Structure formats: C-alpha cells, structure tokens
Protein 1
Amino acid sequence: MSQKVNIAIIKTAKSRLPETDFDNLPFGKTFSDHMFIADYSEGEWKNFQIVPYGNIEFSPAISALHYGQAFFEGIKAYKHADGKVTIFRPEKNAERFNLSAQRLCMPELPVEIFLQSLAELVDIDRDWVPAKENHTLYIRPFMFATDPYLGVTPSSSYRYMVLTGPVGPYFSKNLKVKVETHYSRACDGGFGFAKAAGNYGGSMLPALKATQEGYDQLIWTDSKEHAYIEELGAANVMFMIGGKLLTPSTRDTILKGVTRDTVLTLARKWGVEIEERRVSVEEVITAIKEGRVSDAFGVGTAATIAHIAEIGHDGELYTLPDPAQREFSNKLLYTLNEMRYGRSADEFGWNYPVGK
Ligand code: PLP
Ligand code: COI
C-alpha cells in the first residue's frame, strides 16, 4: 500500500546560501540547508521530517557501521530558464532503491514516500538548484541499519535520509581508463546490481592504484576470467563500434543504470542499432586497433556522459578518436541537456515536477 505521509518541517534559522560559492562546486562537498529523515521500526516507516542539515547521533554498535547494511541512490534536479525545477526520472531510482533494499534484507520504502521525500525536500531548498548549464542539484537518498547489535543478522530498525547539494560535472576532463584484470567490483551471486555501500568501499583500493599509475578510472571486468567488460568506475559503459551501439547486458554484477536506460531509449528512437550482450575486452581492443571504435563513454547520473579518451590494457595504451569530434555522444549530451533543462519537449515524461 502506498500513500502520502505527513512530514514535520523544521526550517533552518539561517540559510547558508549567501556564503555558498556557486562558481566553485566540487562534487559532493556542498550540502543544501535541509535534509529528510524517516525511521523504520516495529515493521513500519514513521517520524517523517525535514530538518536543518546537520550531524546525526547513533550508537557506535549500529550494524550499518560493522556489517555494511547500507545503500544509496543518486539523482539530479534541474532548474529551467523559467525557474521551474524538475527531477530526472526518480521513479526509476525508487524502483532500484527497493531492489537494493531486498538484496540487503532491508525494508522497502513505498515508491510514493520516496518520491514525496525528494519533491518536498527539493522544493524547500529550490533556491539551491543551480541555474548554470551543466550544474544541478544532486540528490542522495540512503538507508542504513540502526540496531545497536553486533550479531550478524538483519537489523530490525533503519534510518532513511535524503541529502541534497549543488554540483558541477563529476569529471572535469576526458578519461584515461585502465582495464582492470586483477581486482573485481562484483561477483556472480553477489550484489553488484545493488547500490550497496560495500560495493564502493571495495572499489577504492583498485581505483587508487589505477590513479597512481596515471589513470582516471577503471573499466571493471568479470570476476571469473577478467575477459568481459562490465562497468566504468561508478557508471555504465558504452562503445560505438562499426556504427552499432554496444553495451554490456545487465546481470547480477552490473548496476542497471537509469542513464543507461535513457541513452538506449534515445538511441532506439534515433534508429541506432543496439547490441546489449557480453562485451569482451578482446573485441573492443581489436576494434580500436582496426579503427572501428568511433565513440566510447561512461553513462551515469554523476558522470553524465563521460568521454573515454584513452584505454590502457596489458601494458599498451590505446588512443580513441578526439572526443570533441564524436558524433553520437555529443548529440546525446546536447539532447539530454535540452530535455532536462526544459528547452525541448519532454516526450518521454522524464522530468518529474517539483512544487508549483
Ligand atoms: N554503475 C555504478 C556502479 C554506479 O554507481 C552508477 C551510478 O549511479 C551507475 C552505474 C549509473 O547509474 P545511473 O545512471 O542510474 O546513475
Ligand atoms: C551517481 O552517479 O549518482 C553515483 O552514485 C555515483 C557516485 C558513487 C559518485
């Protein structure tokens, strides 16, 4: 059953907006004035609140801290030229939120409450949504286990929260990426398809090693043979090879990205031939050598459309076509921005309106 809930609102006495530099917004460091909170216990969600952004207090024994019963989502809100604010496809994130919850033995949140929490929080902080091109309000819903109990069993109490903050692009440059053939992000039967906190904790050491070798990001491969491409950092990955759009099909090791679905929907509309299947490292490297790769990019909420400029594999570095000249990914970026900032028709109904 799904219904709207009453949200208790305590507004901040003093907004931090005046001291926020909107010309300098590194990803994830600036938070808006308010945050959303709800608690789960005795089998139900309760205590819905919007309060000033600030620290929270829990027992040091909460199971989220010890056993990683925690996950999150990432979504963006856009400001249109007429001041209207819309959130991009939050229904898809609501769906995935509950997939993550199921996999981690955590309670689902009714889709209606998820959407209401986002819309009301963003509306209260709508002045925090940047008006500048390529800038957005990043929305971070998350849930974690709050039982102060060290037994390795599912918690009986949980906290759901939403933070927001204005952001610029996550990547400021085209990417030099390394095909990772030792570490894995996810494994068969694991939880790579969920936005579990632990997936990201485990990715940091391989990513750090790659940056020490001069790379910006990793292309993750399958954990059994390291022969098949899965994702690019915290984004899905796509290649245009011989005029066909090629992307790994989703499976339990791959996050089913909202941006991935968005791009495939647009490509289908444009009549581009799409192949969603297992993509081997070998076929991509061979195609690069033969000059058949015209485009390669990561797709994600934070990443948007991130051009891959160079790929390192097996001691070789391969240079891809000049990102500025790429037809498909640049058309995608343009079309998506036009749509999300309300400058073209919202033909798929992807812009979820906030407030009046
Ligand atoms: N893959 C991973 C591991 C991610 O963390 C993300 C980011 O959310 C994505 C893919 C892209 O998903 P989406 O387009 O829904 O943001
Ligand atoms: C997003 O794209 O929203 C993500 O979750 C990536 C994030 C880990 C920076």
Protein 2
Amino acid sequence: MRKKIVAANWKMNLLQHEAATFMTSLSESSLSSSTGPDVVVFPPSIYIENLITLNTADVRFGAQNAYFKESGAYTGEISFGQLKSIGCSVILVGHSERRTEFSESPSVIKKKIDAALGNDFDCILCIGESLSIREMGAHLEFLKNQLLESIEHLNENQVAKISIAYEPIWAIGTGLTATVHQVNEVHDFLRSTLIDKFPEAGNNVRILYGGSCNEENANELFACLNVDGGLIGGASLDVNKFLKIIHAANEVSRIEH
Ligand code: PEP
C-alpha cells in the first residue's frame, strides 16, 4: 500500500506573519505521518528556515524551485546545496507555471531532477496537459512523453525518490476539477507507464492529483485507486481547509487498510 502525500504549494502567496500563523496552527494539530499521510509544505523559499524553527508538527518542507548548478554567478538563483543547508529536502519540479511563465524546457527540468537526486532530495515532478490537448484527445500520449522525457534516464533506485503530480493545466487555479473518471483514466495510465518502464519501483511511485483539489472534493479524488494524495494550491493557503484535506487522505487510507 502506498502512503498518501498531501502537499501545499503556496506559490507566491502569504506574507511572513501569515506564513508563521499558518505554521503555528498546523503545529497545534498533532499531525503524525506514522498514522496519517506524509505532509509537505512548499512555501516561498525565504520563509523555509523560519517555518522549520516554528514547526513542531510532523511536516516536511520543500522548495518550489531551485537551480541545477552547484554555485557561482547565477544571480537570483538558489542551489540545492543551499536549500539542504537550511533543512529543506523536497523539491517541486516541472510545475506548469514554471514551464509557461518561466519558459522551463524539458532539458532544464531533467537537469533539475538530476541535481535534486544528486543532493538526495525527494522530488515531486508535475506534468499536465492543456485544454486544447485534452480536447484533441491527445492527453495520454502527451502525458506519457512529458513523464518519460524527464525520468526515462533514471534507474530504479533513483525513480523511487520521485513522486508524480498529475496537474491538468485547465484545472489549476480555475475551480474546475477533473472528474473522477478523468482522474482514474490518467492515473491508471501513468501507473502502467511507470510499471512498464520501471518494473521494480513503478508500482511504488506515488502519483498525486493537483488542480482545484479542495476540502470538498479531496475525499472522492483520494479514493481513486492510483491517486496517492494531492498537490494543493489555493486551498492550502487556509490552514483549516488544508487540515480537512489531510483528514480526507487519512480517512481514505484507513478505509483502504
Ligand atoms: C498547483 O498549482 O499546484 C495547484 C494544484 O493549484 P490549485 O490547487 O490552486 O489548482
């Protein structure tokens, strides 16, 4: 049985005091990854160190971005080594906002994955199709390519450090959630693609759903066979909503056991 992950992607939201208040409330909620899902928070990187200090909950902190070079003249960038030195050990790679707003190419994404693994980070690799690709009925083919172009070169041990987040672009921040039917189709397809390519690790790679997942729909999404949790944007900014989503993952896991 794969353990679920509930991850908060705050993007470029919340001021420092708001982030601190969130963390204090989360810390009071007695989360435990031994009984509940793994919880990861991806705040803006400038807050990570402070949040680690404030945190008493069973939560890991990840960065929304890092550069693949070790050090040097890369103004404005943060390296994996620097993130590691403040206690950060998870990275989000390939988010559609980075692919589109910051022109991140497949080759950059691949380099980031390699740098992450070289620094012993766990990765959440985001993939997802646009509405036009879905309307053409080409989404499965597209997703297979997007997945394999980033991880095909890895070995079984390396791929075990990766989780996938399926995030249809048309569902991100739009309030439009993929239907259970659409989610099942894609997640089952990604699972068999992973097993074909990685016969040992493929069944253990966790596949999260992201795209307007919230406290109201988390339960039915997390109950899908190959949905191993969620990457949550908007609904993760409110600690009560986020806790309800964690609770939904917990409930579904209890029923599955
Ligand atoms: C995201 O950007 O990763 C995301 C899932 O956002 P939202 O939940 O707001 O759709």
